Amino acid sequence: MSHLTDRKRAVGLGSAKSGTAHFWAMKVSAVALLILIPLFVFTFGPMLGEEHDEVIAYFGRPFPAIVAALTIAVTFKHFKDGAQVMIEDYVHGLAQKIAIIVMICISYAAAATGLFAIARIAL
């Protein structure tokens, strides 16, 4: 690491200027998912196999709807960031840029679809 200046070493940023922020965003979303996934399983699990009206009424309550919405949002954010890192590592050139754009569009579309479904049920 002798090629880094003292300032860059102190700030913690390498040549790309975004690696540290991306790393911390992944860590924060991973910790959030450690909390959200069990909450989601315990709120979603009892409704498996229940009648449609019961499920709609259950997810119409604030707590299950908020847990489901947060889980969907954080999961797809974490997916987007992780898939972007994989694409940056293994795909190069124009294909890399296209793959990242497509993956971001897919993850945002899936998150929006899930959040819209939860909003329709909850409201």
UniProtKB/TrEMBL annotation:
Single GO molecular function: metal ion binding
Name the record gives this protein: Succinate dehydrogenase hydrophobic membrane anchor subunit
Transmembrane segment boundaries: 21-44, 56-77, 98-122
Role of this protein: Membrane-anchoring subunit of succinate dehydrogenase (SDH).
Subunit and partners: Part of an enzyme complex containing four subunits: a flavoprotein, an iron-sulfur protein, plus two membrane-anchoring proteins, SdhC and SdhD.
Location of the protein in the cell: Membrane
GO cellular component, one term: membrane
Record membrane topology: Multi-pass membrane protein
Cofactor(s) demanded: heme
Main location: membrane
Gene Ontology terms: biological process: tricarboxylic acid cycle
This protein's UniProt keywords: Electron transport, Heme, Iron, Membrane, Metal-binding, Transmembrane, Transmembrane helix, Transport, Tricarboxylic acid cycle
UniProt-listed Pfam families: Sdh_cyt
